[in-house]
Amino acid sequence: MRAVEELRAKPTLITRSIDLHTVDSLILPGVGNFADCARLLDEGGWSQALRNEVQVAGKPLLGICLGMQLLATSSMEGVAENIQNGTLGLGLIPGRVENLRTLGCGLRIPHVGWNEVTSNTTSGGLFDGIPDGTDFYFVHSYSFVPDNPSHVLATTFYDIPVTAAVRLGHIWGTQFHPEKSSRAGFRLLRNFIENPAC
């Protein structure tokens, strides 16, 4: 919220799922465990309310870190190894969330720190005015693997290619934390705030 305020916008903290209809666009931040967060969203009526606002009402949504992972169909985080399908997510962008180690990463996990991000688009949008190879700040152990590679908006490299940002229509997500990523992160947030349908 402080980052949005720095950009001279007026954020509204929504504390009840029934109030999601009162805003024009949505930012879903998240830090923690996918399974725990998904359960809390379900129990509080947030999951269905978010789907309604995004899929039916067409509101733009930006998921950040765990908020991006929650856009997926499912995640293996916090799930016993013998369970194949994982914990259900919001299902707004088809795909799964897997541990970086499972995906082949041999470096230390979690992936913490600054890393270069390469956008897969030349059309601007969320990365408008941000040069390719700009560093953003990451803190994560799991990675979103979209079913459709065209939904990968940007990547980073941490021993393996890692999804750094996703997009499906008016639904966006960043694995990195724009609010902790200095000028580039604030530019990305400004791009979403000023043109959320970009």
Structure report:
By secondary structure, this protein is α/β, with parallel strands linked by helices. It is 22% helix and 28% strand. Strands 1-2-11-10-9-6-7 form a 7-stranded mixed beta sheet. The longest helix is centred in the C-terminal third of the chain and has 13 residues. The radius of gyration is 16 Å and the shape is globular. The chain starts with a helix and ends with a helix. The model has no long low-confidence stretch (mean pLDDT 93).
Topology of helices and strands:
Elements: H1 2-6, E1 26-28, H2 34-43, H3 46-56, E2 61-64, H4 66-69, E3 74-75, E4 87-88, E5 95-99, E6 111-119, E7 134-140, E8 142-146, E9 152-157, E10 161-168, E11 171-174, H5 182-194
Parallel strand pairs: 1-2, 2-11, 3-5
Antiparallel strand pairs: 3-4, 5-8, 6-7, 6-9, 9-10, 10-11
What attributes does this structure have?
5 helices; single chain; 11 strands; 28% strand; four-stranded mixed β-sheet
